[in-house]
Design brief:
Elements lengths: L1 E2 L9 E2 L9 H9 L7 E5 L3 H6 L14 H4 L2 H6 L1 E2 L2 E2 L9 E6 H6 L14 H11 L1 E3 L2 E7 L12 H9 L11 H7 L15 H12 L22 E7 L3 H7 L5 E4 L9 E2 L3 E5 L6 H12 L1 H11 L6 H5 L9 H11 E2 L7 H16 L4 H16 L2
Parallel strand pairs: 8-9, 11-13
Antiparallel strand pairs: 1-2, 3-12, 4-5, 6-9, 6-10, 7-8
Helix pairs in contact: 7-9, 15-16
Length: 386
């Protein structure tokens, strides 16, 4: 927590408490109700509605710089808000891209798209992955698509795998249509999933997702292999911009690039990354709010994004970082601008995320797509309606 006793130079010192990611929600629940609540929280941005609804976070609307809402990425504004108020501004963003081993794709005679307007559908992407894959079906020596590094390293993370289902929808369709509901995967008030998560379009997309792991057209593995792409044992890899610098640092012995993320009907990438917010129960609420604003804007935001290679949330910061305006970082930022959508916003995001992840994992392992999605809806519905 912050110490504001220094009056001579205006310095603020912080005591930082690190909490394992899996224990964070429980820790916040305990600390936020204590007499000595933290001044600042750092957390995963999709949890904003959850924490704001419980009174954990301080609204920042009275502290926002003029013009900020016009400068920030639309998905960041949506994700950092709850019931019309802004609770976090975001210090970084993430978006998934399709990394490719250019040495392998060239050998296979594959031309990979590198602009959003030429992005592959998932059918086209799977065809390319099958063409590039080496070895026998079920036991490749080179995977078409690297086993995921996200989440626990097994199939199902909402951040990546729910995109298959959502991309089968259409946000421009009538709002009462299953195509529209498929794209959003949750009702606007965050309380309903029946008819949103288990639509016919979602079930069909889940069947395609399952085929990536099973049968004659399988291109990836149900078991993790964290370094498959770095080791040259995979043609493609779904990962966010955080892999750019490790690839450069590793000086891998192959050429590589990044393609836009494939889609089924509608291009989409999930947004959301670690962010900071002020505590509603902070004894230094004014200073805490001003700190959040300071680190989320201007030179502080620019320095953070530049040093850490993380995508900016502000267009003004993006324009001041020439390295982000060149591929592959520019492609990730373009995805954020044009395709970015928050993960389904709800005050029960942790439960939503875990239950949907388990359903997708079961589908990848061979479970019936309709049954698994219907079971997820059955588990979620009583929770979401609270």
């Amino acid at each position: 927590m912050a110490d504001y006793t220094s009056k001579t130079n205006g310095c603020v010192t912080f005591d930082v408490t690190d909490v394992p990611f899996g224990q964070y929600a429980d820790k916040v629940s305990v600390l936020s109700s204590s007499a000595n609540a933290p001044d600042i929280y750092g957390y995963d941005m999709p949890e904003t509605a959850n924490y704001a609804s419980k009174g954990v976070l301080l609204p920042l609307d009275n502290y926002l710089p003029e013009g900020w809402k016009d400068d920030v990425l639309p998905a960041t504004l949506t994700e950092g808000s709850y019931e019309g108020k802004v609770y976090t501004m975001g210090v970084q963003q993430d978006a998934l891209g399709l990394y490719y081993n250019k040495t392998l794709t060239d050998q296979a005679g594959i031309t990979v798209p590198t602009s959003l307007d030429t992005a592959w559908t998932w059918e086209q992407a799977r065809d390319a992955m099958l063409k590039c894959q080496q070895g026998t079906p079920g036991s490749p020596t080179v995977y078409g698509l690297a086993p995921t590094q996200l989440g626990s390293g097994t199939p199902g993370p909402v951040y990546s795998d729910l995109l298959y289902l959502r991309s089968a929808g259409d946000p421009k369709a009538p709002s009462d249509s299953s195509a529209y509901k498929t794209f959003y995967a949750i009702s606007p008030d965050g309380k309903e999933v029946d008819g949103w998560l288990n639509t016919p379009e979602a079930v069909e997309a889940a069947g395609f997702y399952q085929s990536l792991y099973n049968g004659d057209k399988a291109v990836t593995s149900k078991t993790g292999r964290p370094n498959a792409f770095l080791d040259g044992k995979a043609c493609f890899d779904m990962f966010h911009a955080g892999q750019v610098q490790p690839l450069k640092d590793a000086k891998v012995p192959f050429d590589w690039g990044v393609a836009p993320l494939p889609y089924i009907k509608t291009p989409i990438v999930h947004t959301g990354a670690i962010t900071v917010a002020a505590s509603a129960k902070s004894k230094q609420a004014d200073a805490a709010a001003k700190f959040v604003v300071a680190v989320s804007t201007g030179s502080a935001a620019k320095e953070y994004n530049q040093k850490n290679g993380r995508l900016p949330t502000l267009n003004s910061v993006y324009k001041e970082l020439p390295e982000f305006q060149e591929p592959p970082q520019s492609l990730f930022y373009n995805e954020l601008e044009k395709w970015g959508q928050p993960r389904p916003p709800t005050t029960h995001f942790s439960q939503y995320s875990q239950i949907v992840e388990n359903a997708l994992k079961n589908i990848a392992y061979g479970g019936d797509p309709k049954d698994e999605l219907d079971q997820a809806v059955t588990k979620l519905s009583p929770l979401m309606s609270r």
